[in-house]
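Q: Here's a chain of 379 amino acids. Please give me its 3D structure as tokens.
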Amino acid sequence: MRRTTVAPRADWQARVEALGLVWHSLDGKPYWDESACYVFTAAEIAEIESASAELYRLYLAAGEHVIAEGRLGELGIPRPAWDAVAAAWEAEPPALNFGRFDLGYCGDGPPKLFEFNCDTPTSLLEAAVIQWDWKEAVFPVLDQYNGLHEALVAQWRAIAPLLGEGSVHFAHMADAAGEDSVTLAYLRDTAEAAGLATLPVEMAAIGWSHAARRFVDGGDRPIKTVFHLYPWEWLLAEQFAPMLVESLGRTRWIEPIWKTLWSNKAILPILWELFPGHPNLLEAGTRPIGGDQVAKPLFGREGANVSIRWGDRVVAESDGDYVEQGWIYQRFQPLRDFGAGYPVIGSWVVDGVPVGMGIREDGLITGNTARFVPHVIDG
């Protein structure tokens, strides 16, 4: 694994915008950064792929354990939703079941899990489409670990017969930066490529029909299936949460409510409890574990409210809005600085199968200003 400099394409902004990535720069600096790329050997890619498959197996076992032992409260899931979560886990309603394992890996040891973003993961378009287009233009003879787009379309096609008639609504909150809008638009494209009809709807426009006891969009059309780029912990904190749980049999949510088992960092100490010393896991606990460690809020996003502690010294910390929800503590994993920051591997899975990866670079804490850097396989 190595990082090498590359000359950016002269028209790179226009190229990525044409593919949908309008959110490609931050404060005049590229978020999509093609002035460099990471080069992996096939053996290194195989190691990342194998670790991702193994981590998915561990998450399945942890989910089974939490349900069987009645530990949903430890995950911050509201009590009124427990039965619905357990029922969905057992029933396996239609889902993309996609997610991004964030891994520490520099080619000199087994990949280590930082966390699993599997409810509303972003950096999807960049990983699936933008870096492939870049590779084809810049390194056409090399390969890339990237079957993500095809896997998403195939999964939509597989679950389409289970969704019934009507359009799939795609819901999110309007965001000034455009990152969520870009991700949602891309996922609509993958659904339509699989033959599904889609409709956009903002979360704020979703209403409740008391007469029909179901959700409707801004045009009073029934919402039968909705893909939500809006986290389950937020949904279950809304005033309409009781109606949401009540109407799960009439409205299909993708991803389903069982994703609350995996989409928070409280699962990390449970994984370590079940599989202590596993080569792809980092020690984690609900209380400080001593030594060099990282404190993370249960439902924090984009590196917010994270602090890195080397012994008694805080060496890095970030602000945010997630200070009231509880914390987990994870063993600090050193990464190699390749000259422009520390790379974090985002390894994507669709329905449990590893299908590709993306790389973000940042300081000790990977935040929302991290750069996305493409990769190739050579050797």
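Q: Can you summarize the key feature?
A: The first helix runs from residue 12 to 18.
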